[in-house]
Structure formats: structure tokens, C-alpha cells
């Protein structure tokens, strides 16, 4: 009989290194010592669980969840996909949270002083739980590019921030979705902190014409992969014995 | 060469400067959700010693990182996690998970919880009471995982298998929160002298 065991060690070659000097803020915010790799314990293979009582049914619809006087301005899009693990198994009932700028590249955040205006009908955050197949969907507007103080003329590609939990704290992941064909992607120091071109491509949501709603919304497809888990024939010794 | 059918993990990216919009919108300056997640770690029914933890996250220049977001994961006072794979039950409402952000002006953060109990380690060992912390912020490309231990658990800490794995004994000290009255103080140094130990779990 097999039992679920430990999670696969993270393949650090697909993640950005802590120090990516072209992304200037990382210079003083990156540890100089190597991370210490642990064999997992109960502390790592457990993590918070969420249910439908935690969120409201409309939280995934950014077109309506902050609308006050009408719809937000911008390109109406559907962002959808599946959360899978490295074994290609769906990750069901997991919390997916997103946040983004509005169509002009302005965030509804008191620290954002970019001159593009706030949209009175757009908050810019949403959350949902994946279904039994690991599937999620959001409705939103496509975010605009925006400038940031790194090199003087750096512009972030259009992106949506994603936060995913999985089933264990060691699967916790925050990343960013980019949009297929955006010419800013290869110019961005944050994107290019990722050493692996394939990994960048997998962060790029693909236009999904089959999922568009004609005369309503364009769709993008974005699948997320979390760390997978071993099955072991041996006694599970994580908790002793 | 035959390709194995594994999928590669999605690459991490920094949470950026506006992480609060998604994960703590109240702090970003607007209310959108019926309730924000992560405010109550232990819940009103939690048994055990109720404690407060406070600290600051400092960058390589010793300046506070004011746009950090920290997530907390811990067992209850009996050493049980709110998760089906942990042995035992937790109190009704005990979540063991929370989200914390600092004051935007001072960089000081804090949270109220209960002191966790000892938890099982590997191969029959016992882990000293600890809280797992996960930090994300602008400039941090992959979330940083660390552990908070308690300075009044010296005996358990001395036997803790994870602390003992750190061969640089002085670095173990960076994971020990100091009790000061009713508060445990835990400062996190991202870089430089007294750099906090971070784990790959």
C-alpha cells in the first residue's frame, strides 16, 4: 500500500535567484547565505485549508466585485486554467488569489502615485477556490503596463499577480501571469530574473479563443503547477516510528 | 531520450510593492471583501498560553522593510496542525495560519496567537515549539521560509533536530524570539551581519 510522502525538492534552476542585480531592489533584500535544505516534517507537509465559507461567490469577478456606478473601463477578459502538481494531478479546493492594476496601469493602493487615473469601478483583487478538477476562473479587465523606478525607463509588462496555496505550506507560491505577445516581457528585469526561458513561457498566458465569450470577453489560459508529492511503499517516517 | 511525464513547477516571481491589494486590501486603503483572511490565527477557543509576537524585517542596510507580507503557520498548544495529516484535532476555529503586515511608517509588525506545542520530528524525534514564517515582498524573488523558536524553551531548543542541523551555532540564535514582558520579539535580518537563517523546505 502506498502512502503520500514528501514533496519533491524544489528545482531551484527554474526559479529566479534571490540576488538578481538588474532588479535593483533584490540587491539589499537577498540573503547572502545559502538556504538550508530540510527534510520535511509535519510542519512543512501541512498547510491551511480554505472553504466556501471563507470567500463570497462573487469574489472571483473583478468586473463586478468593486463596481459602484457601472462597469470598469478596459478590455474584458476571462483568465482561467487549472492548478496541477508536478505529477499532473489536479489540486482541488485550493485558494487562488489575484491582484492587478487597472486598464491604465494604476493600482488602487495608497502608495501608487502613477499619474494614470484610478478607475472608480475597479478594485483589482479577486479570489476563488479551485474545483474538484483543479479548475479556476476569473473575470477582469486586462491590466495596463506601468512604469517603475528601477532603471529610469523600465515598464512592467501587463501582468496579474497570483497567489496559490496547494495542500501544504511547502507548496506556497506567489507568481505573476503575463500575456502572450507582450513586447515588454523580454525587457523586464523581474521577468528576466528567471534563468529558464521555458519557465518564462509558462508564465505567459495564452490567448484561448475557444474560451472567449463572443461579443463579450476575450479569454486567456494560465495553468499553474505546484510541487508534486512522492508516493512511498515504505513506512512513512515523517512523524517518527 | 525519453521524457518523464512530470510537469515543472511554475516559477516564482516577486509579490511586488502592492501585494496588499490582493492579500490585505484593507491595508491598501479599500474594503472589498466581506472578511479578509488571515487576521485570526488561533481563534477564540484556542487553549494554551496566549502570546504576542512583534518584530521588524530589516534589509541589508539595516533599514526596515515596510512593504513585507508575512504568513504564519503553526500547530496548536498540543502540537497539532489544523490539517487532516496531523494527528489529533484542533479547537473549533483554530486555523494556525495568519497574515501579517507591518505598519507602513515604522515597519513594526505583530500578531496575537497561542504558543504552539512541540510537534513530531522525523525518525522519532521531537521538534521544539516553533512557528513557520513565510516572507514575500518587493525585491524578494522567491518567498523566504524561516522558523521562530522561543527563548524560554531552551531545553527543547537544544534538542531540536532542525536547529541542530544548522552547523554554524551562532546562526541558530537568529531563529530565537526573545521574551520581553508579555511579548516575544523576533527581528528578521534578510541580509548581512546576523542574517536570519532561511530554509528550503
TrEMBL record, chain A:
Gene3D superfamilies recorded: Aromatic compound dioxygenase
UniProt entry tagged with the keyword Oxidoreductase: yes
Domain Protocatechuate 3,4-dioxygenase beta subunit N-terminal: 8-41
Pfam assignment, any one: Dioxygenase_C
Transmembrane segments: none
All copies of domain Intradiol ring-cleavage dioxygenases, residue ranges: 45-228
Any one Gene Ontology molecular-function term assigned to this protein's record: protocatechuate 3,4-dioxygenase activity
Biological process annotations from GO: 3,4-dihydroxybenzoate catabolic process
UniProt cross-references to InterPro entries, sorted A to Z: Intradiol_dOase_C, Intradiol_dOase_core, Intradiol_RC_Dioxygenase, PCDO_beta_N, Protocat_dOase_b
Alphabetical keyword list: Dioxygenase, Oxidoreductase
Family: Belongs to the intradiol ring-cleavage dioxygenase family.
Protein name: Protocatechuate 3,4-dioxygenase, beta subunit
Organism: Marivita hallyeonensis
TrEMBL record, chain B:
Keywords of this entry: Dioxygenase, Oxidoreductase
GO molecular function list: ferric iron binding; protocatechuate 3,4-dioxygenase activity
Keyword Oxidoreductase: yes
InterPro entries the record matches: Intradiol_dOase_C, Intradiol_dOase_core, Intradiol_RC_Dioxygenase, Protocat_dOase_a
SUPFAM superfamilies: Aromatic compound dioxygenase
PANTHER family: DIOXYGENASE, PUTATIVE (AFU_ORTHOLOGUE AFUA_2G02910)-RELATED (PTHR33711), PROTOCATECHUATE 3,4-DIOXYGENASE ALPHA CHAIN (PTHR33711:SF9)
Protein name, entry field: Protocatechuate 3,4-dioxygenase, alpha subunit
Amino acid at each position: 500500500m502506498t502512502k503520500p510522502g514528501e514533496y519533491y525538492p524544489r528545482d531551484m534552476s527554474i526559479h529566479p535567484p534571490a540576488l538578481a542585480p538588474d532588479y535593483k531592489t533584490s540587491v539589499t533584500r537577498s540573503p547572502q547565505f545559502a538556504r538550508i535544505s530540510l527534510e520535511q516534517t509535519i510542519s512543512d507537509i501541512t498547510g491551511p485549508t480554505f472553504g466556501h465559507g471563507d470567500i463570497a461567490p462573487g469574489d472571483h469577478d473583478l468586473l463586478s466585485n468593486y463596481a459602484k456606478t457601472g462597469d470598469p473601463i478596459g478590455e474584458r477578459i476571462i483568465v482561467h486554467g487549472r492548478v496541477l502538481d508536478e505529477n499532473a494531478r489536479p489540486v482541488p479546493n485550493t485558494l487562488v488569489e489575484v491582484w492587478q492594476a487597472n486598464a491604465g496601469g494604476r493600482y488602487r493602493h495608497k502608495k501608487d502615485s502613477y499619474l494614470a487615473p484610478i478607475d472608480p469601478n475597479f478594485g483589482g483583487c479577486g479570489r476563488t477556490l479551485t474545483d474538484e478538477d483543479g479548475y479556476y476562473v476569473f473575470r477582469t479587465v486586462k491590466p495596463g503596463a506601468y512604469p517603475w523606478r528601477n532603471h529610469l525607463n523600465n515598464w512592467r509588462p501587463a501582468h496579474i499577480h497570483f497567489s496559490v496555496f496547494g495542500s501544504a505550506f511547502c507548496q506556497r507560491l506567489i507568481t505573476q501571469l503575463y500575456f502572450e505577445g507582450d513586447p515588454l516581457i523580454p525587457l523586464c528585469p523581474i521577468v528576466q530574473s528567471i534563468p529558464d526561458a521555458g519557465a518564462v513561457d509558462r508564465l505567459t498566458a495564452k490567448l484561448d479563443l475557444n474560451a472567449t465569450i463572443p461579443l463579450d470577453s476575450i479569454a486567456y489560459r494560465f495553468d499553474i503547477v505546484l510541487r508534486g508529492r512522492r508516493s512511498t511503499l515504505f513506512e512513512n517516517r515523517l512523524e517518527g516510528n | 531520450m525519453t521524457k518523464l511525464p512530470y510537469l515543472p513547477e511554475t516559477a516564482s516571481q516577486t509579490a511586488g510593492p502592492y501585494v496588499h491589494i490582493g492579500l490585505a486590501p484593507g491595508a491598501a486603503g479599500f474594503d472589498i471583501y466581506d472578511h479578509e483572511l488571515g487576521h485570526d490565527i488561533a481563534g477564540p477557543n484556542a487553549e494554551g498560553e496566549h502570546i504576542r509576537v512583534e518584530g521588524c524585517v530589516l534589509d541589508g542596510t539595516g533599514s526596515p522593510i515596510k512593504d513585507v507580507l508575512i504568513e504564519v503557520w503553526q500547530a496548536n498548544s498540543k502540537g497539532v496542525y489544523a490539517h487532516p495529516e496531523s494527528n489529533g484535532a484542533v479547537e473549533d476555529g483554530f486555523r494556525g495560519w495568519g497574515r501579517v503586515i507591518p505598519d507602513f511608517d515604522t515597519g513594526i509588525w505583530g500578531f496575537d496567537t497561542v504558543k504552539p506545542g512541540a510537534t513530531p520530528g522525523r525518525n522519532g524525534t521531537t521538534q521544539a515549539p516553533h512557528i513557520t514564517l513565510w516572507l514575500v515582498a518587493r525585491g524578494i524573488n522567491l518567498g523566504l521560509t524561516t522558523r521562530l523558536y522561543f527563548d524560554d524553551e531552551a531545553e527543547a531548543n537544544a534538542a531540536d533536530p532542525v536547529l541542530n542541523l544548522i552547523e554554524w551555532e551562532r546562526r541558530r540564535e537568529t531563529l530565537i524570539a526573545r521574551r520581553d514582558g508579555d511579548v516575544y520579539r523576533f527581528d528578521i535580518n534578510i541580509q548581512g551581519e546576523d542574517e536570519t537563517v532561511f530554509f528550503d523546505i
